[in-house]
Amino acid sequence: MDDRQIPLDSAGSLDGADEEGLAAKIILDRMKVLESLCDRRVNVGRVENGSALHLLDDRFSSSRSVSHLLKQSLVAAMDNLLALRRLLFIEAPDGRIYFRRQTHAPYALVRTIIECTATVLWALLPESPGERARRGLVLVSREVFNGAAFWDAYLGEFHPERHAGATEYFDGLRRALNSSAEALRLPPMFRQKADGSWGYATKNRTETAILKELRSSSGLPPGLIHAWQFCSGYSHGLEWTSAEGSGYEDASGPAGDDAFQGGGMEQLRRMCDVAFDLIPQAWEIFDLRRRTGPLT
Between the CA of residue 189 and those of 118, 135, 164, 175, 181, what are the distances in Å? Predict the structure, then answer.
């Protein structure tokens, strides 16, 4: 393929020795290592009877399956990884590979990978079955909380004739989760207000809270939180993340950690390193908790 056939939207070839091309090559090489896990999107793995995950599902069977929520997280992580690969790289039929520079979109995909894999790790890493049950209850409650909010708004506007039935359905899920919390000797997840509406009684488990608790309890590096925050800011186009300067004079000097400086493919490579490190860890703990025997 000669120069006239180089894709118009490419920023360079991985064959080059420049810093941007080298950073892009590192990203792609790491993606290739994770290919086998991408293939598992269509066969995440059966939850075996008697496994830790099966016991969690039994606890909350009247409301939602913890294992299904975590499977969804793993599938979403790998789907976003594949989307990131297709966004960043042009893999020509003759084997030559080119990379694209995208200023903001890759960070949204990296952020999602971090969120999804961190959720799996947070839910399943604790050795204590009681703590895993508590975290599973929080995840299921968050799912019900967000699902109820969506269907309340959607059906209320577009299908009011179905609204009452959906309300009754979600009321049943809230009561079931409150019963589960009581059995675990935890405060209720939801409280009904005087007007009949429901509020979230426990602290809403935000991504920030999950990442902080995960880091403090598992030894993951502090860079995990900062990478997630950085990717979130970049994906939303916030000014403080801009490589061209954010306008915050006090923040424009040298930083203690240069992982968040520089811009371009090298900066993205550093964010990808954080996200890609989480992927095999999330799959490993999922496989450990879904099986009754040791991993082989």
Answer: 22, 12, 22, 9, 7
Kindly report the backbone phi and psi dihedral angles of residue 291, in degrees, each rounded to the nearest multiple of 5, phi listed first.
Answer: -115, 155
For tokens 């990478």, what's the residue?
227
pLDDT category, 7, cuts 50, 70, 90? confident
Per-residue pLDDT at 119: 96
CA 66 to mean position of chain CA atoms: 15
Are 196 and 79 within 8 A, CB to CB? no
Measured CA to CA, the distance from residue 83 to residue 282 in angstroms comes to 19
**Is-contact 219 211, C-beta < 8 A?**
no
- CA separation for the pair 294, 66 (Å, rounded): 21
Q: Which two tokens stand for residue 276?
A: 């890609």
Q: What pLDDT shows up at residue 283?
A: 97
CA distance 24 to 88: 8
pLDDT of residue 18: 86
